[in-house]
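Fold it.
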Amino acid sequence: MNEEERWVMHGLSYDDPGCLHTPEELEAYIEEVGFLPFFRCEIPGFSAEEHTEAAAWWSDDPARDPWEWRAVLAARGRVAYGKFFDRKAGFISKKWFPAFANYRRDGYDFDARWDDELASMKSKKIMDLFAEDRMDREVFSFEAKQEAGYGKTGEKNFDGEVTSLQMQTYLCIRDFRRRKNKKGTEYGWGIAVYCTPEHLWGYDHVTSLYKEDPKESAMRIFRRVRELYPDAEERDLVRVLGLKALGSPAAKKDLPYPANLVKALKIEGLSADTMTQDQLAGLEVAISQLRDKQEKVIRYKYQQHLRNEEIGRILDRAAGTVGTYHTKAMGKLKWPSVSAWYLDGYDASIRSFLAERGLSYPETILRDDNEPVSGRDYCLRLGISLKHFVGLMKAGIVTVFDLILAMQDPFWYRKVRGIGPRTAEAMADKLDRLYLDRLPRDR
């Protein structure tokens, strides 16, 4: 600590019974308490500084100097090292890291956070260096800065973005290594090497608490420090542990459906304000061409305005998995064969669809633009995949009325190729929700 122009370390004397003398002793202490800031903070006693020999700091003796130990522990990989505490350095044990990851990430893998527009492009450029098949990379800080496009003519504030990603537990410091010249000889100071926590301990371990409410993970962390330091002020605990700064993201003003989905598609010139009813009808058909879980994610996210974490609880999936479903769904909605339904409109697309199969467009088919689905409309409008629609047509089931009549037989689907009992049940649910429930009931 800098006191009256002098750098003073608030540690212990060498012969104090509580003094930690080796990196192994410090590591064991971290694993015992669970997590520990490196330097002294607002909570007395809650730091590596206060449990090590004050005179040993910056002594240039790797065996005694706690400043050197941070590199030793980072390289060993039994505890994670990074800027985890109020944007300052510290350690988190393997046992406690899932609680920090679940709370700090709010149940989001980084890709899912990006999909929900909760991450900046600056952060994404850095995290892209560790994406998918590159998750196990170990990257020097100067390499990461260059590869992510930071510098005089590029993005700014690399250090700030990397610190934020460490606070969110997406990155940690793997080691401090010296550069090598062309002959392989090391030179200069040790430079931070970044990696993902998943690289240290595997994805399954790091995300093992994703199904827990992030607030409960926060309370686990809070209760642990309160247990160790019962006299600490609550405001200090909240600040040091990052509980206030990294709580649930501020609620965004939700656009109504389908404006929010159209905006998220980011197709130039396409706006819900200017889309015709025919195009909006085509959008519903397009969504119905997604795989079951992808369609559910789209409808939960944009129609019910649920976040990935909430959708994950419904589908019994991690928020990161929900983010993957969402990414794939949005990609498919942009396929030319799918996007044509809402770009060209429903009427033009259904005519083209039938013409490609040598089928004429019956003029008796009617669609009321003021209603989601009319009885004399194609049953495709109920949210049926094109594959199943073709099967229905071959069985003579063309309109919504045709489907209602067919369903009088509980085993009607056996006459339709490619449709089983589960698909038939899903169609019945859509028929009830989109058509039958709107009909007047006898009182």
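Strands lie at 2-3, 6-7, 35-37, 79-85, 88-93, 139-140, 172-180, 186-195.
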